[in-house]
Write a structure and sequence with these properties.
Layout (H helix, E strand, L loop, with lengths): L1 H29 L11 H6 L4 E2 L5 E2 L3 H13 L3 H16 L5 H17 L1 E7 L2 E6 L4 E2 L4 E4 L2 E4 L8
Antiparallel strand pairs: 1-2, 3-4, 4-5, 4-6, 6-7
């Protein structure tokens, strides 16, 4: 009989601990700061080819290096839609001026060639980075920014030369 009583007491203690932990966890969830913008669930990331969706449809990446690799791949393939998805509509205007297809292709080729000559990602702050390309390490005109834990090219803040 003593064995049964000690098991029931330990079960009661565990039950009380469980109820209290659920209660306090629900309080801490309500005390969090409000999240701005759409919520990116982990399942949403995998639905988008491993890339987090942005509110404007612009692709977001887990690191600046991943963003740069995707951009260089899209520019090498001269895929205007992918470049637009990566840079956004504002950043795309810098690469694809729209004068002629030959000029746009030449611009992509110049960036890819400069990238392969020399490249590095310079972190300006915890949430900003700039791609330096070519022997003279010129800044790629569209910087990168970290938004809600993901990186994207910030087409709205083009770097002036």
């Amino acid at each position: 009989m003593i064995l049964f009583e000690s098991r029931s007491k330990s079960f009661g203690v565990m039950l009380v601990a469980l109820v209290l932990s659920v209660f306090f966890l629900s309080l801490s969830a309500d005390a969090r700061l409000p999240v701005r913008g759409p919520t990116n669930w982990p399942s949403d990331v995998y639905k988008n080819g491993g890339k987090a969706p942005d509110a404007k449809g612009q692709r977001m990446f887990r690191s600046p290096a991943e963003a740069v690799n995707a951009l260089i791949g899209a520019m090498s393939a001269y895929d205007e839609q992918k470049v637009t998805d990566i840079l956004g509509s504002e950043g795309k205007k810098f690469v694809f001026a729209g004068n002629s297809a030959a000029e746009d292709r030449a611009a992509c080729d110049r960036y890819v060639k400069a990238y392969h000559e020399k490249n590095r990602i310079m972190k300006v702050s915890r949430s900003e980075a700039v791609l330096k390309i070519g022997k003279d390490e010129r800044s790629f005109p569209v910087p990168m920014e970290k938004v809600r834990g993901y990186w994207r090219f910030a087409g709205h803040s083009i770097i002036e030369r």
